[in-house]
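My main concern about presentation is that the manuscript never shows what a single data entry looks like. An entry of this sort, consisting of the sequence and the corresponding backbone structure tokens, reads as follows:
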Amino acid sequence: MELLYKSTRNDHIKLTASQAILKGLSDDGGLFVPEYIPRMDLHPSELVNKSYQEIAYQVLKLFLTDFTEEELRDCIRRAYDGKFDTPEIAPIAKVGNTYFLELFHGPTIAFKDMALSILPHLMTTAARKNGVDHEIVILTATSGDTGKAALAGFAGVPGTRIAVFYPKDGVSPIQEKQMVTQKGDNTFVAGIHGNFDDAQTGVKEVFGDREMAKEMDRAGFQFSSANSINIGRLVPQIAYYVYAYVKLLENEELLPEEELNVTVPTGNFGNILAAYYAREMGLPIGKLVCASNENKVLYDFFETGTYDRNREFVLTSSPSMDILISSNLERLVYKIAGEDAGRCRDFMGQLAEGGSYTVTPQMREQLAIFAGKFATEEETAAKIRQVYEDTGYVLDTHTAVAAAAADKYRAERKDKRKMLVASTASPFKFTRSVMEAIGAGTEGKDDFALADELSQMSGLSIPRAVEEIRTAPVVHKTTCEPGEMKQAIRKFLGIR
């Protein structure tokens, strides 16, 4: 049975999976969601001893029903290969009483590689299936990690170009160096004078500009997205939660049917939404702990039922979570609104116009499987230091936010279920913050010298992704105001 995708803001728009992947964002500004969440057709115990690639296929085939088995397996084979530095793709480390799902073993040492390694292959396959003759222009806003992962995935892919916008002063030095040194004639990177929300809003405005869409069409281009607003980004993320549960079963860390709690460091809400979808598919997940840093807009939402972006934007040591407009939350709001596109559209209109909305008591009741927790900068640093001193294991800043949030949840709720934490980035991506937390001297040292010291202290090898950019020349030097993004895109594409 074919699974179609509909817009969160218009029930009458229905597309196949490949069409939804190509569009990225609905014309009405809504996000594509499946008409229903398919149930797993194999019990997790039947997947024991299967590879990451095989488990990914068992998940993707349920959501991407207009792709053939041969097409999906080919996309998976090309995505999850030697570009990952471990054959497991997503190994699990047991540290104390917590399981860390390491999602940073891909080419850009962040969890975005898990989906952005496969998205280019899904997209080019979708283009062939739908007879697309235009060049696909991938348009992406990034808070640090998506940008490089998307650039690495799409660089040199025939029939595509990619433009990435990031907050000029809102990412780590290594994150920025990864992006601005990206090679490839089909790539473009610009730092904007603003924060991630400004970049994301600008990208959404481009998608919603019908005159610009006509202009693009005349020039032989069409836009799509590599952000987690694209369902082709979100669906592959479900696979690693299924994989993690299967591996814990395989290692006899879980009993069949035993519920597992999951904590996810959360910014744009895509990663934790993938865990929610895995639960809806039948995976035995208990509580979903949504971990925030000091930009705790999601924590406040789960505590009060009000989403309010009208607050100070805080630059933290976990920049990929420095977000006040969590786009993927719209998919959850649509679900708890009874899949009523009109109500969802009203909420999103209130957010756009006044900066806030409040869900009903009945909708809040459906959020009970979530718990919001947050960690301050001090608590994040303390967690990095404590875990390193106790075990020698090194957390990056985002994973430390999640670990601190998990501790708070367990202490407050007395919940004894086992806890999986999504470990979303390598500590080498945020060396300065990590070394400062551990208590090492950082003054007068650049991030690469600190990476050398961290390697010596921890015994961890410096990832290839860091070594490659150490002396790489800067290729992309464009900066612009948020209001100049459209013109920057035109210039990149050669449209006057």
